[in-house]
Amino acid sequence: MSEEQPGSRASRYTVLPATAVDRPVVHELEIRRSRFIGHLVRVEDEPQARAFISDLRRKHHEARHACSAFILGADREAMRSSDDGEPAGTAGLPMLEALSLRETGPAPDTVPAPESPGTVVRDLSDVCAVVVRYFGGTKLGAGGLVRAYSDAVSATLDRARLVTRQRMVLTGVEAPHAEAGRWENELRTAGYPVQETRYGARAATLVVALPDDGRSTAAFGARIASITAGTAEVQTLGTEWVDLP
Questions:
Q1: What pTM was estimated for this model as a whole?
Q2: 20 to 30 A Cα–Cα from 79, which one of 43, 92, 184, 214?
Q3: In this structure, are 109 and 215 located in the same domain?
Q4: Which domain range does residue 206 map to?
């Protein structure tokens, strides 16, 4: 879990799983004797992305190029790329397009008709891609380089698991100590997992995380009113980002 990204318009987006922070996804293509080694890592900010790029350059110091692209933020407000010595526009930009145009699924709450593909979502973010190239002696030309770097990122993405990152509203319901257990059980039965119960001197607070989608909080309020016979109120405690299972 992490703190809210201030001002973000999106309430959900797609990321690599948390395991990809320390264990990048790696895949290699050989194209006309050149080796293109794709790396994907999950990052939280630009310094972390640039540190990963620098580490790979040091690790592959004998390689001709280590081209890169990354996207950051729920609204994908930061997009950067580098050709790292390849002809301008033949490496970093195609890599960035492979990330930004990646289809991550249908739009939430839409069920495509059989004859229609539905609305496609492209919302991959918090990701850094680096393609290390070991030159094989044969020049590929501008078009060949564009395809090679784009394909290297796409093929690596094909081997990556993606998850949804959802902005959640943390809500609190104050319960008398004698009722806290019953209310918690009824909430769990209704499909609202209680994240924690905070016991105070006079009452307990049941903490429940709800999707920040404009509908879930109202539905939760109605359920609380039913469980507590209208004696309890739902308080907003804050927001946080959570990777959905």
A1: 0.82
A2: 214
A3: no
A4: 165-243
